[in-house]
């Protein structure tokens, strides 16, 4: 029986981040069940408090795209959704999103695509930009809402990502350029550099972009929405600094 822990946060992402720190793994390695959520009176998207039960399977591993389940593997429908379950999830996601957009009186077009047990919701249209928000904050909140709704409908094992007008791809490319530029600046000026606060997804892009960079290292500091990536010289981190409260990292 896998270990489990109950955690709360202002959003599903924040709760999963806390659980990831507790288990010392990436959020993607976690399985979870939404126990409850409470909304503020004027909250359109982000729940005020989300409580989830989180656990790690005994032998977590990445699913290889196209890999078939076999009797010798302990793969269950809970781990890998069946084609019928994916079809229902796709229909439920499209139905809920359409109802939400109608209630918000948003003129958008959208398409749900499924690949390897993962649903992608692509949104375009006249009002699509309003769903992105400053630095993608509204997009992230809306994606969190969709995940919570799908989990409550019984599809917590189905991956989901929302993209609006190609924002995800553009933002990822911008973050990779920022990572490269920051690394060069740190090397040139011989001092560490703190980047702007980012969510877990964006911090991972920075970490991944610089993980093989020979002269710099990255780690995260701060809590909640103020958590940010620090780009630092490897030699300075190991020899010129002592003490402090930096965390070895990850996310």
Please state how the strands of the largest beta sheet are arranged side by side: 1-3-2
The CATH topology of the largest domain is GMP Synthetase, Chain A, domain 3
Low-confidence stretches: 58-78, 236-251
The averaged pLDDT comes out at: 78
Assign the CATH class of the largest domain.
Alpha Beta
> Which architecture name of the largest domain does CATH use?
2-Layer Sandwich
Distance between the termini: 27 Å
The major pleated sheet works out as: 3 strands, antiparallel
**What series of H and E elements makes up the topology?**
EHEEHEEHEHEHEEH
The helix count comes to 6
Number of strands: 9
Helix content percent band: 25-40%
Classified in CATH, the superfamily of the largest domain is K homology (KH) domain
- Taken as a percent bin, the fraction of beta residues is 15-25%
Q: What's the domain count?
A: 3
How would you portray this structure in words?
This protein has 251 residues and is of the alpha+beta class. It folds into 3 domains: 1-58, Dodecin subunit-like (2-Layer Sandwich), CATH 3.30.1660; 82-165, GMP Synthetase, Chain A, domain 3 (2-Layer Sandwich), CATH 3.30.300; 170-240, 2-Layer Sandwich (Ribosomal Protein S8, Chain: A, domain 1). The chain has 6 helices and 9 strands, in the order βαββαββαβαβαββα. The strands form 3 sheets. It has a 3-stranded antiparallel sheet with strand order 1-3-2. The protein starts with a strand and ends in an 11-residue tail after the last helix. Mean pLDDT is 78; it is low at 58-78 and 236-251.
